[in-house]
Amino acid sequence: MLNNNLIWVANTKEGENIHLLPKMANRHGLVAGATGTGKTVTLKVLAESFSDMGVPVFMADVKGDIAGLMCAGEDSENMRERIARFGLADAGFSYHGYPVTLFDIYGKKGIQLRTTISEMGPVLLSRILQLNDLQSDIMSIVFKIADDNGLLLIDTKDLKAILAYVAEHNKDFAMDYGNISKASIAAMQRAVVALEIAGGDIFFGEPALNIHDFLAVGAGGRGMINILDSESLINNGKLYSTFLLWLLSELFEMLPEVGDLEKPKMVFFFDEAHLLFSDASPALLDKIEQVVKLIRSKGVGVYFCTQNPSDIPGGVLAQLGNKIQHALRAYTPAEQKAVRAAAQSFRENPAFDTYETLMSLGTGEAITSFLDEKGIPGVAQVSYILPPQSRMGSISDAERDAGIKGSLLYSKYAESHDPDSAYEFLMRLGMEEQEAREKAEQEAAEAKEREKQEKLEAKEREKQEKLEAKERERAEKEAAKAQEKAEKEAEKAKQKVENERKKAAKTIGSSVTGTIGREVGKTVGGAFGGKFGKTLGGNLGASLGRGLMSTLFRSK
User: Fold this and answer.
1) Are 40 and 67 in contact (CB under 8 A)?
2) Among 118, 239, 494, 545, which residue has the least CB neighbours within 10 Å?
3) Is-contact 228 61, C-beta < 8 A?
4) 2-114+206-419 maps to which CATH number?
């Protein structure tokens, strides 16, 4: 409740009002205590007060009962007793609901809440995926490659696509970005698939949350209370804590520097805060501490809700100026040591022993310490937390459905869409590369076929040429043989002709010489021997003539 523009949180046993100064609300705070000690009621009382001031609020609903803020509280004997004890009736206490927008990463119990891979960034994404240091460095390189090539990383499809692309072309990137292990990328791809199974494929996408939508004001000028249903999300502690840390980072980056205001621009409640710090790397812890330390200058107050202050690292705990510590239980020496440390974190009040009081507080009771006007922590006070004006419990499914669909943001975020991003670009690029490879392979096959055909043709030509050469050689041999035979035949014919000529000449010569010899012989024989001599001379002359011709025409 508001009391003279101050946030009235509790009363002391003596009835003194305990206030949280609005101008100090951005100095952050802590709400701690064991299970069942009243932390949820305290969160509701704080959220109602900030809303009444016109300050938007963000809260995580881990148990499902924070959503009761949207409905008016219900009267009961216990409530009437508390209203009377605190004197709330005279202060204007009334049962009423508050402007609430219900969100849910899974889109089941609230408006679908999404962000993109690019907006999450490599550091927080590596935390979600539980990557080791080497894999986290590679994730940063992958984001750098995406930025350098103008690739939008919207959803897990985009992330898997660029991881596969970088692995396939790691040698091409080695010169500019260093060696990128395919084995490391394979492990990262498996982590992305595991994230998708856990609902990450739903969480990452468009339309992404516009952080300015959390800064809205509802009916009557009350600040909007944005509630993230986390009953299912809490089962994935990494996703839950990383999302809330991302939300803080976005607020820090987008909001202008304003310094200390009369009231905060927004208040952020981080329930189950121990999940934010469990298994966090030193680099991540440094980032958390830096964001918490600096975001107050943007007018944002962060309130961590956890069971024990020891869940919060010392560097962050030192930034939490406003403290509400419910009862702690200590059954072991280690637990007692933690309670003692919590007691020592308060400014001592000599009226009571803080350590003993912490272990004896009842439900709805707490030790409080808020910053004064000068930012100095007040002394510890045993306090009794006021009751909320909204419903103490949860809401029905019908009330939830009406609240979801009645929101002005429902139509903005209800339907998802898949823009043209890294996945689509790389798929097109892959198809082009595939087509180029297929074309190159086809051209290579055709060239190989041509080469093969040319070789076959050359071989066929060579074979044909050999056959032709062999045929020519055979023909030449036959021609030579025929020529030789012809020459022999010609020579033989010539010889025959010559022989015939000689024979003819011999015959003719023999006949002529025989005749001449006979006539000469007759003449000579007739002269010496009369008729007998003439006949003998003729025969002898013919024989001598033929012998002479035979000698002249004898074949050589």
Assistant:
1) no
2) 494
3) yes
4) 3.40.50.300
Task: Select from 44, 2, 13, 7 the least CA-distant residue to 26.
Answer: 7
| Rounded alpha-carbon distances, angstroms, from residue 91 to 52, 74, 264 | 14, 18, 23
Helix axes 133-148 and 182-197, enclosed angle (nearest 10): 90
Question: Tell me, what's the pLDDT at 555?
Answer: 46
- Give the span between the Cα atoms of 328 and 313, in whole angstroms: 18
Residue 449 DSSP one-character state? H
Torsion 489-490-492-496 (CA) sign: positive
- pLDDT of 216 strictly over 50: yes
Q: Domain residue spans in the chain?
A: 2-114+206-419, 119-205
Which has the closest alpha carbon to 389: 82, 145, 20? 82
Q: What is the pTM of this model?
A: 0.77
Tokens of 164: 């596969």
Non-local (6+) Cβ contacts of 444 within 8 A are none
Between helix 182-197 and helix 117-129 the angle, nearest 10°, is: 100
Beta bridge partners of 267: 57, 301
Model pLDDT for residues 449-479, shown as the tens digit of each residue: 888 888 888 888 888 888 888 888 888 888 8
Q: Is the pLDDT of residue 480 over 90?
A: no
Place of tokens 């239980």: 329
- Tell me how far apart the alpha carbons of residues 101 and 402 are, in angstroms, rounded to a whole number: 11
Q: Which pair of structure tokens corresponds to residue 519?
A: 């006539």
Question: What pLDDT does 72 receive?
Answer: 95
Give the residue from 378, 352, 344, 381 showing the smallest Cα distance to 365: 381
**Adjacent-strand bridge partners of 7:** 2, 20
Distance, in Å, from the CA atom of 455 to the CA atom of 477, rounded to the nearest integer, reads 32
What secondary structure does DSSP assign to 329-389, as a single string? ---SHHHHHHHHHHHHTSBP-TTS-HHHHHTT--TTEEEEE-B-TTSPBPBPEEEEEPPPS
Say how far apart CA 157 and CA 218 lie, in whole Å.
37
Q: What is the pLDDT of residues 310-324, one digit of tens each?
A: 889 988 999 999 999
Please say whether the beta carbons of 42 and 365 come within 8 A: no
Q: How much of the chain, in percent, has pLDDT values that exceed 70?
A: 90
Would you state the pLDDT for residue 262? Answer: 93
Supply φ then ψ for residue 332, to 5 degrees: -125, 160
